[in-house]
Design a protein that fits this description.
Elements: E1 2-3, E2 9-10, H1 19-30, H2 38-44, E3 54-56, H3 60-84, E4 89-94, E5 101-104, E6 110-112, H4 114-119, E7 126-131, H5 134-147, E8 152-156, H6 159-170, E9 175-181, H7 190-199, E10 203-210, H8 212-223, H9 226-235, H10 245-257, E11 265-269, E12 273-282, H11 294-303, H12 307-317
Parallel strand pairs: 3-5, 4-7, 4-9, 7-8, 9-10
Antiparallel strand pairs: 1-2, 5-6, 10-12, 11-12
Helix pairs in contact: 1-3, 3-11, 6-7
The chain binds S-adenosylmethionine.
Residues 54, 96-98, 102, 113-114, 130-133, 136, 158-160, 182-184, 187 line the site of S-adenosylmethionine.
């Protein structure tokens, strides 16, 4: 039995949240419809939505919800491990950082992107974001300075080129890392990104696995240009013509980064069209994987909604549409 706000004993058991409520809670947080008022704070500091910010469909809210849900679980476990001793710091490494805000298509609203979501989580000791586009990197830096001064680094440039130097400077064998890999296409070169996983065992990876791989594979099957094959091999080392990219990716994860956790979670845009999948890979956990079991059921919830549902939920949490 739990004590209520006034010290009395609550006899009524808490009603379990529905899937819709669980997803809405995440979207409410990402859209800052809570006491944080971060979007307002950015506006008043002339750092609100601008043309530099990426605009994506409502399905982006599914990706960000999945990330934010995992950030909560990951950071709790990481913090309790660090408090017990033996670990130096907890990092969020955002390989494809963006500008900090994302405009949601077909709505009047913007939401927090990955790096700003991490900035809201005080259990991270530092957030390191890579962003190739200079203007996006610049505004991300200013937004982070406002939200978590002294706790971030924005690296302007290609993550594949800069990761090695950052790992050398910032990561030791006793650093706990959540590595978020969120490209638009096939930009990540895993041979380079592996530098991080080599330095510490305590890295969890959450990755947006793009379906662009399939488009490239289609081209390879038709024309077999050497360049296409090389491009796929830099994304997926070990890929050979005739392999399906899914198999290559999963076997690379198993061999080099450990087993993926749970199934790939499809991120569906309007009309249930799968745009990409999220893959979660957890290498080292304390006390088994029971803490992270809820990710499996939350992943199922994510897979059952699409971009249109998310647009509607966003309007609802913003107060301009009746609840579905
Ligand atoms: C899908 S967006 C990231 C969105 C971001 N994670 C968020 O939640 O707001 C991908 C970003 O990666 C940047 N980018 C593309 N190639 C890159 C590279 N090689 N290194 C670093 N950033 C890159 C793009 O400019 C773009 O802003």
């Amino acid at each position: 039995m739990e004590k209520g706000k006034c010290g009395r004993i609550d006899l009524m058991p808490k009603k379990a949240k529905t899937d819709y409520e669980k997803l809405s809670d995440q979207i409410r947080f990402i859209a800052c419809e809570n006491e944080s008022n971060v979007i307002e704070l950015l506006d008043t500091n002339s750092l609100g939505l601008s043309e530099i910010d990426n605009e994506y469909g409502g399905h982006t809210l599914l990706k960000l919800s999945y990330l934010n849900y995992y950030m909560g679980i990951f950071s709790r476990i990481a913090k309790s491990r660090k408090d017990k001793g033996g670990f130096s710091k907890i990092l969020f490494v955002d390989a494809f950082g963006g500008s900090g805000l994302v405009k949601i298509r077909n709505t009047n609203y913007s939401v927090l992107g990955s790096s700003l979501l991490a900035a809201m989580n005080e259990r991270f000791d530092k957030i390191i974001s890579f962003e190739k586009d200079e203007e996006r990197a610049e505004i991300l830096s200013k937004r982070m300075e406002l939200l978590c001064p002294g706790k971030f680094e924005v690296v302007k440039g290609d993550v594949n080129i800069n990761i090695e130097k950052i790992v050398k400077e910032q990561v030791t064998a006793r650093t706990i890392v959540l590595f978020f890999i969120d490209p638009e296409g096939m930009e990540p070169e895993f041979v380079k990104l592996k530098t991080l996983m080599k330095k510490t065992l305590y890295v969890d990876i959450l990755m947006n696995y793009t379906w662009g791989v399939y488009r490239l594979q289609g081209r390879i099957e038709k024309r077999f240009t050497d360049n296409d094959i090389k491009r796929t091999q830099s994304f997926l080392p070990g890929y050979e013509v005739g392999d399906t990219p899914d198999e290559s990716l999963l076997s690379m994860f198993e061999e080099e980064f450990g087993k993926p956790f749970g199934n790939m979670v499809p991120i569906n845009s309007i009309g249930n069209k799968t745009e990409y999948s999220m893959i979660l890979r957890i290498r080292e956990t304390s006390g088994g994987t029971s803490f992270i079991e809820p990710m499996k059921s939350f992943g199922k919830i994510i897979g059952n909604y699409d971009g249109k549902d998310c647009e509607a939920i966003l309007r609802t949490v913003k107060g301009d549409q009746a609840i579905l």
